[in-house]
Amino acid sequence: MDKIGEGVEHLLHELSVLSINGHEVPSSGFVLTNYGFFLIIASLVTLAFFLLGARRVKLRPDSRYGSLVEAGVEFVRDNLIGDIMGKAGQKYLTFVGTVFFFVLFNNLIGLIPGSKPGTGTMGTTVTWALVVFVTYHAIGIKKHGFFGYLKHYWPKGVWAPLAAFVALLEIISDFIRPLTLSVRLFANMYAGHIMLGIFSIFAALMFEASGVMKVVAILPIALQVALYALELFVAVIQAYIFAVLTAVYINGALGSH
Amino acid sequence: MEITGSLSVLGAGFAFGVGAIGPAIGIGMIGAKTIESMARQPEMAGRLQTTMFIALALAEAIALFGFVLAFVLMGQ
Questions:
Q1: Is pLDDT above 80 for A1?
Q2: Which domains does chain B have, with CATH numbers?
Q3: Is A114 helix (H, G, I), strand (E, B) or coil?
Q4: Looking at the complex, does the CB of residue A191 fall below 8 Å from at least one CB of chain B?
Q5: Do A241 and B56 lie within an 8 Å CB cutoff?
Q6: What average pLDDT does this structure show over B16-45?
Q7: Closest CA to B20 of A8, A242, A187, A244
């Protein structure tokens, strides 16, 4: 049992924010962290993905790669924006698309053994949630004006004290949004990696043991494969949810409901 | 058997374990109802799926608060 505890401790240390060469992060000064490194890589991958796709834009893409990029953008346009905001939302395709692909590439890169998801720390996810938070309020204020936008918290035709109470609840739930948005993405990524790590520890410990345990080690290894497939699914779903909620929040700020 | 470790570890286990009960029931109900609606009106499947994922995300977030809280307690 001690070995498992040791393994878990090592795993948690491995998943914590360290500098790129494995030391503790100093309390002041600039240092490239392990997560930051993969965050930069994910940004470059996102950039390259679209720059290569935009190199030869045709009405009918003639290369496989062109079709792939187009399918991705169409997915965001039809399934993310189209279903939620309709035609009026097409203006925000660039923002929602950027959010979706950036989070998606971060999540997927984290699944390559030896790498880490840029979205696996609170720092990244809180930053992105705040970017979304500021953006949708800015969109709402731009459309309705500052006081006009504030007015949409106030339900119409309701007894005034009740309306004030509802408005208060609305404002509180509005401020909880960036919190849930960031915690959801972070916890999904972090929990997934811990789960994969713990099953690796089981497999390794069973394999080190003698006799029949070596054969039983097949079980955690088989589970590991299934969990990896699940994590791939989660990586895509979480990027999807992050982008869908961005679209929903923008839609709410536009006040078309 | 000797019991070692601090009570906060026990609390961490409860924070996640008990905190996951409600969202688990909720996610199950969301899934069941969506499948029911999809079977009844297959032409609505696309929109239902989008709405389902939004509802799923909201339910799931509650479970994940327990998860984060568990880690906070573990560090105590």
A1: no
A2: 11-75 (1.20.20.10)
A3: coil
A4: yes
A5: yes
A6: 92
A7: A187
Helical H segments across A158-217, by residue range: 160-208, 213-216
Mean pLDDT (whole number) for A217-228: 88
Alpha-carbon distance of A115 to A36, in angstroms, equals 11
How far from the centroid of its chain's Cα atoms is residue B71's Cα? Answer: 16
Residues A69-80: tens digit of each pLDDT: 888 888 888 888
Q: What is the identity of the amino acid at A254?
A: L
Name residue A33's beta-bridge partners.
Answer: A19
Which structure tokens are listed for B72?
């906070």
pLDDT attached to residue A257: 45
> Residue B32 above 90 pLDDT?
yes
Q: How far apart are CA A201 and CA B47, in angstroms?
A: 41
CA–CA separation, A97 and A104 (whole Å): 10
DSSP-derived secondary structure for A63-80: SHHHHHHHHHHHHIIIII
| Residue A81 DSSP code | I
Distance between CA A218 and CA A18 in Å, rounded? 33
- Using 50, 70 and 90 to split pLDDT, how confident is the model at B45? confident
Inform me whether the C-beta atom of residue B61 falls under 8 Å from chain A C-beta atoms. yes
B53: pLDDT confidence band, cut at 50, 70 and 90? confident
Tell me how far apart the alpha carbons of residues B34 and B56 are, in angstroms, rounded to a whole number: 11
Residue of B9, B62, B68, B69 to mutate when probing chain A, most A C-beta within 10 A: B68
Contacts of A103 (CB under 8 A, 6+ apart): A119, A128, A185, A238, A239, A242, A243
Query: Which pTM was predicted?
Result: 0.85
Nearest by CB to A184, from B47, B50, B57: name it. Answer: B57
Chain B residue with the nearest C-alpha to that of A86: B47
Give the relative orientation of helices A160-208 and A218-254 as an angle to the nearest 10 degrees. 160
Sign of CA dihedral A141, A150, B54, A126: positive
Instruction: Tell me the per-residue pLDDT of A202-212, one tens digit each, with 9 for 90 and over.
Output: 888 888 877 77
